[in-house]
Amino acid sequence: MQFNNLLLLLLFVHFTILFQDNILCVQGSTHHYRQNDQDFDQMKKIYTKLFVFGDSYADTGNNRKSFAGSWKQPYGITFPGKPSGRFSDGRVLTDYIAKHLGVKSPLPYRFMEYAGKRIGSGINFAYGGTGVFDTLVPNPNMTTQIDYFEKVIHSSVFIKSELQSSGLVLVSLAGNDYGDYFAKGGTNQGLPNFIATVVNQLAKNLKRIHMLGAKKIMVTALAPLGCLPQSTLLNSFQQCNSTQNTAVNLHNFLLQQAVSKLNNETKDSSFVILDLYNSFTSVLQSKGGHPGSLKFESTLKPCCIGITQQYSCGDVNEKGDKMYKVCSDPNSAFFWDSVHPTQAGWHAVYSNLQPMLQEIL
C-alpha cells in the first residue's frame, strides 16, 4: 500500500498522544497479569471450545485447494510436513491460542459435514484473503462467516449450549480491507474515513457474535503492516514503513474506542483486544530473543520469496519449475512470505501474548 506522508503525519499528530495513553495496544494491562497457576488451570477448564473468524492469520484450511497458495508446496513444510491450508510453514495464530487453552485447533468450517453434530474443540470460520468487507479474494467476508456461525448454532442446541458455557471467540483482522481499498482506487484523502468505516462494521460484527451467545470475544489489533515484507521490499527489508504504521495506529485507536463502548453497553467486559501490534513490534525489535529461545537471523526478510517480483512463494511457471526460493532454516526467519509469519515467528508472538492471554481470559 502507498500512503501520503503528509496526510499520515497529520494523523500522527492528532492521534499519537491519545493512542499512547489508551492502547498501544492495551499494553498497560499486561503489567498486572495473574501469576497464580491455579487461576490459569481454571481458565483452561472454563474455555474448552474456540470459535474463529477472520483471515489468513487464523485460517487453518478453509480455502479451496484449487484456489489458495496455502495448499501449495512449500507451505506446511515445518508442520505438518505438507501443505495444510495454513499460510505459513507451520502453525498459525489459531493453533497457538488453542494450545494456550489446552485444546486441539478447531475444525475448519468446510469440513463440518464430516464432523456431525459434535464439534470437538470448536469451529474455524476464517478464510485467507478476506476482510470485514468483500475483497478482491472471492471468499466469505466476516459478515458471511458469522452467517455460517449463526446457521450452525440454530441447527444444533448442543453447539449453542457449548458456546455459552465454554466457548471463546477469536476475531482476526490482518488488514486485507486496506490493501483492497487501494487496489480498487481508494485515495489517501479518503483513507481516514475508510478506516472509521471498517472499524464501525467490525464493531457491529463483534456485537452480533456476542448477541449469538458468546461470552468472551478476543479481537486482534492490526499488526504493524509497515513491517510486512511486502512493504519493506523497496528498502531491501531494512526498515519498517513508519507512515503505514501510523495509519495502523489510527485503526487500533478507533478499535480501542469501539471495544470500550461495547463493554460499557454490555456491562460484562466480554470484548478484549489481542495486541498483535506490540507483540509483533517487540519480537522484531528484539529479533525474537527471550529466555530459552534463539534469536532470528532475519526479521524483515521473508524465508520464502519469489525469484523476481512477479512471483510469490509457492509459484511455479508453465513448465512446473519453482519460481521461488526458501531459506535453509525457516526457524531463523520471523516472516515466512510477504505477509505471514513463520511458525517460529508466530511462536515468538504467542510467547509475548501469554501474559496478556492469562490476564484477559
Automatic annotation (TrEMBL):
**Key words, A-Z:** Hydrolase, Lipid degradation, Lipid metabolism, Signal
SUPFAM superfamilies listed in its UniProt record: SGNH hydrolase
The transmembrane segments are: none
UniProt GO MF annotations: hydrolase activity, acting on ester bonds
Q: Which domain of life is it from?
A: Eukaryota
- List GO BP terms, alphabetically: lipid catabolic process
Gene3D superfamilies attached to this UniProt entry? SGNH hydrolase
InterPro entries named in the record: GDSL (IPR001087), SGNH_hydro_sf (IPR036514), SGNH_plant_lipase-like (IPR035669)
Q: Where is the signal peptide?
A: 1-18
Q: Which family does it belong to?
A: Belongs to the 'GDSL' lipolytic enzyme family.
Q: What is this protein called?
A: GDSL esterase/lipase At5g03610-like
Species in which this protein is naturally found: Lithospermum erythrorhizon (Purple gromwell)
Show the taxonomic lineage.
Eukaryota, Viridiplantae, Streptophyta, Embryophyta, Tracheophyta
